[in-house]
Structures are given as C-alpha cells and as structure tokens.
Amino acid sequence: MKVLEHVSFNVEDEESEDIIAGVGKIMVGLMRININDGVPSQNPLRCKRFVQGRQAQQQTPHQEKEAKKESFRKYLESSGAVDALTKVLVALYEQNDKPSSALEFIQQKLSCPSIPEYEKLQAQFSDLQIRYNDLLTTHRNTCKELEEMKSSHVLGMASTKETTDNESPAKDDS
C-alpha cells in the first residue's frame, strides 16, 4: 500500500517546505487514507479515469469504504479544509513557545470560540431571546391599546357630532 503524501502549499524557503511536507504526511496519516499499489503516481482523486474506473468496478464492502474515504478526501481538498488545517498546524509547529493547549491554539487560529466563550455566548443569546420576546409582547400590547384608543376616539367623535347636531339652536325668523 502507498500512502498519499502530496499536499499543495506555496512556500518561500526549504525549511518551511520540509515542515509542510511533514504536516501533510501527518494529516494523511491521521485521516488513514491508504491507496492501493496499482494507483497512478499523481493524486488519484484528481485522476478522472482512475475515479471512473473505481466506480465502474463491482465494489466489495472494503472498496466501498475506501471509495468513501477518497470522496471525503476530495471534499476536504476542494473546500479548502486541508489547506486551512495545514496552515494552522504549520503555525503551531513554528511557535517557539508551544501553547499549553494545542486544541485551543487551533480553535483560536480557526476563529472558533473556546468552550467557555461559547457557553457565555449561548447564555447571552438566551438572555437576548427572552428580552426580545418580552419587548415583542409589550409592542403588540401597545399597538392593541393604540388601536382601541383610536376606535374609541372615532366613536366618541361620532357621538359628539350627533349630540351637537341635535342640540344646535334652531334659527328664529324673528
């Protein structure tokens, strides 16, 4: 079996290139994507003929599992996830003073909130949702009261007009 070792990444010096190659090997190892010996030397996920040939074969459960892995790898590459993770892992490797938590470093570099920050944001969201619902209820009640006042004012104006029309003094011809 051969392990896919190619990860494309632009680098400016040989040391960074070695680091990136090592990170790429680690990532591939972590993803446990193995490719059979008969595979072309280029990336099989980008080799259309290879992928079509694999799909045309009657697949065993093992081959189906491998096809799913290859499909997932292609998805990660096309979405840019592999490049993003590579950059973060290279940044972690290049840190002189290694952070106490590699996971928090990765989350920070990927702009993910930490677990305490996430819980705090969830609590704030819940508080704001409750406040919004209270304000919405108050607004609806105020609108209802306003409509009631308008309708009572219109009715009051109509009854006042009838009263004044009936009570107006008749003009004498004297």
Automatic annotation (TrEMBL):
<feature type="compositionally biased region" description="Basic and acidic residues">
    <location>
        <begin position="162"/>
        <end position="174"/>
    </location>
</feature>
<comment type="similarity">
    <text>Belongs to the AMY1 family.</text>
</comment>
<protein>
    <recommendedName>
        <fullName>c-Myc-binding protein homolog</fullName>
    </recommendedName>
</protein>
<keyword id="KW-0539">Nucleus</keyword>
<dbReference type="GO" id="GO:0003713">
    <property type="term" value="F:transcription coactivator activity"/>
</dbReference>
<dbReference type="InterPro" id="IPR026060">
    <property type="entry name" value="AMY1"/>
</dbReference>
<feature type="region of interest" description="Disordered">
    <location>
        <begin position="152"/>
        <end position="174"/>
    </location>
</feature>
<dbReference type="GO" id="GO:0005634">
    <property type="term" value="C:nucleus"/>
</dbReference>
